[in-house]
Amino acid sequence: MLLKLPTSLFKSIILLLLPVAFIGCGDKLAPKPFVFDMTRINQDGGVNDGSDYEKKPWACVRDNQSGLTWEVKTTEAGLLNINNTYSWYDPDEKTNGGYAGKANSGICAGSNCDTDSYIKAVNEKKLCGLNDWYLPSRFELSTIVDKSIPLPGPTLAKAYFPESLAGKYWTDTTFRTRRAGAWAWRFDQGGDYVVEKSEALNVRLTHVSPKQPAVKEASK
After folding, report:
1. Mapped to the 3 state alphabet, what secondary structure does the chain carry?
2. Average pLDDT of 157-162?
3. What's the confidence (pLDDT) of residue 61?
4. Which pLDDT value is given to residue 35?
């Protein structure tokens, strides 16, 4: 015996199913690229016009939306090389999430191969004229991930990060339920995951610019 549905209910069901039908037709849905707005910075802190990275490479970029400044990795041998890896290490009990990690367990040049040593070396170098670089949080690092770029990445805005290696990058965020692990971002697929602090991953430091005081308009 067939159940006869009221006309109003039947129309409602049809309206609910219409979007499903249309999704299956036409072009595939793709993530809409995020529009990044960044300023390229030279090693001395001056602004780079971004016209030619090969002839006039920039060392950092400042995100004009978040206020964060990021180091740009290089293919030249040394401290800032894109292939350098570091173990997660923070000896400060106030900031290490309850577990310091492992010192000097990566493969690198220019410093000992752990996050604490790398931070100190970059600050001593005064990259882009700054000496208060730090390991970004899980959220902060997510702000430069371009999820519209598919595998194999790198999921970075190429106009600002002219790098060919996707890499896996540490954050300062310890995993709550296992303090021997910390969050990292994979720039091949644009996702985050938890890794043992003893593992050797890449590092990209950040700097937060102080907020500029608001300009008060003259009263009329």
Report:
1. CCCCCCHHHHHHHHHHHHHHHHHCCCCCCCCCCCCCCEEEECCCCCEECCCCCCCCCCCEEEECCCCEEEECCECCCCCCECCCCEECECCCCCCCCCCCECCCCCCCCCCCCEHHHHHHHHHHHCHHHCCCCECCCHHHHHCCCCCCCCCCCCCCCCCCCCCCCCCEEEEEEECCCCCCEEEEEECCCCEEEEEECCCCEECCCEEECCCCCCCCCCCC
2. 94
3. 98
4. 84
Q: Which two tokens stand for residue 164?
A: 């060919």
pTM over 0.85: no
Terminus-to-terminus CA distance in the chain, angstroms?
79
Q: Where are the domains of the chain?
A: 34-209
